[in-house]
Every structure is written in C-alpha cells, then in structure tokens.
Amino acid sequence: MLKIKDKYDVVVIGSGPSGCASAIRCAQLGLKTLCVDNLQHSQSQKLMPGIFTNALCLEMVALLVSAKLYDDVAKNINAHGIYVENLTLNVSQMVQRKNNVLAQINRDIAKQFNEYQVDFIHAKAKLLSPKTVEITSTLESPNKKIIAQHIILATESSPIPIPCAAIDNKYILDSSAALNLDEVPKRVAILGAGVIGLELGGIWKKLGAEVILLDAQETFLGLADHQISRVAYKVFTEQGLEFRLGTRVISTKVANKKVLVEYQDSDGTHGIRVDKLIVASGRKPNSENLSAPEANLLLDENGFVHVNEKCRTNLPGVYAIGDLTMLGPMLAHKGMAEGVFVAEQIAGIQSSPVNYNILPNVIHSEPEIAWVGQSEQALKSIGDAIKVGIFPLNMNPKAKFADKASGMVKVITCAKNDTILGIHIIGNNASELIAEAVLGMEFSACSEDFIRTIHSHPSYTESISEACLAIRNNKLFHS
Fold first, then answer.
1. Catalytic annotation, pick one of 150, 226, 457, 478
2. 424 is catalytic
3. How far is CA 282 from CA 12, 175, 195, in A?
C-alpha cells in the first residue's frame, strides 16, 4: 500500500486523460506529484482503480474497430474474391477484447507513473484551500490533509441525467454500459444524435441492430460545417441509421423486457418500443463536491470551473483543465494539451498557451468526420471573403481500392492572402488526415503550401492537396 506524504509540489485531482498527462509531465519536470482519483471501473474491465478512468473515447474506438471488421467481412469482402462461410458473432468476446486492450493501456500508464515516481492513490479528494487537499480513502484512516504548492483539478465529466429516462443500465443505458452489452439488441433507440450518439449508433448498426436516433435539434450535426453535415446525413441514412430530429422525449417506461419511449415532434406525440434505450444527450463537468464551500472556488451556473486563458482558477496556485472548464470543447486531446501546458507553467517553463482555434474535432463514425478551424457558415456570417476547394473521395484511388470512397475533403482559405481558415473531412481515415491540416494551420500555411508539399501516391493524404488545387478553379464567396 502506498504511504502518501504530507507535502507535495503538485496534487492532481483526477486521472482521466488530462489528469494523467499533467501528472506525468509534472514528474518529468522534477516536481514531486500525487495523483488522486476515486472512480472504480466495473469488474468486467479489470482495470486499476482510477487510472485513465475517462476512457469512453478509447472504449468507443476499440469496439468500433471490431464492428467495422465484422461489417466488412459480412458485406464487402466477397468483392475481393474472399468468401467466408458460417460467419458468426460473439459480442461478449468482442467486448472482452476491448476491455483487455484498455487494461493494457491502463498498465502502460501505471508503468509511466512508476517510472517518473508519480504517487497514485484511489481515494476521494476535496479542495479545502489554495494549498490544502483532503483525502478520504478506505485505505487511509482517518481523513488525511495534504499540503501542495500547486493543485490541478482534472476530474473530467459524466453523462447528463435525463429525468424522463432514468438509467438502470439494464434496459436504459448510459454510454459506458452501451459499450459493454453481451449481445446485439434487435432494436435500439439513442437519445441524442450528437457525437457520442452517432458513434454508438454506428457500432450497433454494424453489428446488426436496428438503430433510431432521437434528437431535439432540428439540424443534424449543427457544429460541423453544414455541407459536411448534409453529406454525413445522406451517407448514414443510406447505411440504415434512422434519424428523428426535432423530437423531445417526454417519458420512458420499461415493461415486458422492452422500453416504451414516448416523444413529441411537430406532428404530435409518438411512441416506439425498443429493446434498449441509450442516453447520449451530453455531458456535465464533475465539479460537485470537488471543493469545500470555504475554499471559494468560482464555478458558473452549469458547474464549470472558471479559469483564465492559462487555466488558472480564481485561487492562487489552483488550476483546472479538461472537461471541467469552458475553454474549448470536451475533447480528450484538448485536456491533455492543457495538462502539459499547466505542468510547464508550474515548472517555470515559458510555453505557448493551447491554441483553441486550431483543435482537431473528430467523430469516430464510419465514415469518420474530422475538422479543424472555422466552418463556411461561420465565416460567411462574419462577412469574410473566402475561397472553397472540394475534392470528392470517389476520385481518390486509395479510397476506391479500400471500398471506402464515400465522403469529401473541403478546404477554406482567405480570399486575400490564401491562408487556410478551415479544413473539413468526411471519409475513411479522416481522424488521421486531419493531423496534417492541424500542423499546417499551426504554422499559418496557405493552400499553396499544401499543393507544393509532395504527397505519396496513391494515398489518402493526396486528397487535401487536391482540395487545395480545386480552390484555383472555385468561385469567390462573399457574404
């Protein structure tokens, strides 16, 4: 059992992506660091308590890889002259593989903690003052107060509860439980057609379920570039996903091993009966009971911790990162970048703040959706003169060879100086392609830079330079 000390240079509360990144970087920079987390994984996952607890994005991708493989074998492999007889699906084994991979990632992070001498304890932590944290653990009695020169709050987020759809994780599931089913439900409804709902819907559709997505918004994927959203809606609908937008769920009831979902739209009140209802309607910061009232930590009305551009709270020496703040979207890589930035601040290293304008956004659907920078509709709304270049992936040889030619690459530049303002992708490997776009924008690249960069042929990466070439023949857009 770890004997935690009375004093540390840094205490990190939370061991999700942002917490782990900040704790490891602090230790690398010579700061004596304690990381505290109280979340316990389910028995089926067999992970170390606390370490990398916010692994929803990893769970999603791990299961989606298996679902894609099954779907390709079931539907597409014959075209390659490969035939499989008596194809069967073992969902329990698929989920177990996912959990085994997560456990290995968990062990790898634990090794890093050991290598850099980060102390870790599975316990509850509460901020008492700018330099004091109270630790409550079944392994530590009585409660222990830790003094720290710096405190980093990194407790991430959790699903927003919906009163009319109480989670029981048997019939009405949260997003984590939806990734740990032992069989494919025949009919699934998902409350929320945003990023998480779309990713979950794609997984279970590929595994054979009928999937209905209910969303209160009238516009599908409103945060993405609208042209990309329209293409995505068409592609996903053709795959068999059913979207019911502009709907409001008013009640749910479990009866006879089914979930009765009642919702309203512009045509009135309707009901559907499904085997499982997955609630994926957003997340909230885990700030409840994070600090004692006398600490006077400043929160907004939605529970987000107030910080400045350097992730500093209103309390000296106390920082907040990741999903706890309103700085940027709730993305794991955003929180990890903030964790490193804060660690370097504490160590006295002058590093640039996180550039929230150039964060890659990724939806791990099939095909994937990714973007960086501004959308066409946002730029038009502020009156910026822009040029747009589009390259359809059905013109890309590599995508054709892989039978993954649905989608497009869209590049938006400033009409005056050719600087890249946004790159938006829907297609296979979009989550990887977007990295080149982010790098280019980080160094203020123009479309000419992408054109003159030699890309291998055939490759998916050619598509970005091809979209930039298309700008030369595209019309000038004005608001």
1. 457
2. no
3. 25, 10, 9
